[in-house]
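Support request, please re-run this one:
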Amino acid sequence: MSETTTSPTLSSALRRLYFVRFGFAVVWAALLFLTGGTMGPFLTILLIAYPLFDAASVFWQIRAEGESRRTKVSEWINVVVSVLVAIALGWASTVSPSVALTVWGVWAIGAGLPQLITAIRNRRSGGQVPQMLSGGISLFAGGAFVAQGLQGSEMIVGVAGYAVLGAVFFLVSAVRLTVVLRKTSAG
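Re-run finished. Output below.
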C-alpha cells in the first residue's frame, strides 16, 4: 500500500484478520486433538501449518498497516521466528513429541513477546487488550511447554488448548473492533 492506512481502515482489516485467525485456530486445534498426538505425517503437517499461518497473518497485518511511520520491527521478528519455528517443528515432529513440545514452547515465547508489543502499539485501533493478554499468556504458556518438553512429556496435543485460547482472544478482539467500527460510523 502506498498510502497511510487510516485508523478505521486498519481496524476493519484487523477485524477481518482476527475472525479468520479465530476460525483457523479452532479448526486446527480440532484436527490436532483428533490425531491424539500420534506421530506421523499428518501431525507434522499440522505442526508446520500453525506457525506458517501465523507468519502469513502477521505479514498480512504489516501490509494492511500500509506505510505508517511506526516501526514494524516486532511484527517482522514475529514473521521470521514463525517461519524458522515451522522448519524446526517439521524436524522436531519426526524426533519425538517432547522435542516438538519444547520447540512449540520456544515459539510461543518468541511469538508472544512481539504480539504483546504490537498490540500495545496498535491499542488506538481498538480491540487490542485481548491481544495484549494473548501475547502475555503466550510467554507463560511457552515457558510451561518448554519445561514439559524438557521433562519428556509427550502431550503435544496439549497445544490444542493453547490454540483454542488464542482463538478466543482473536474472536474477542474481532467483536470489540466490530463495536468500535459501528460507533465510528454512527458518530
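The chain is about 80% helix and 0% strand. The two ends are 27 Å apart (CA to CA).
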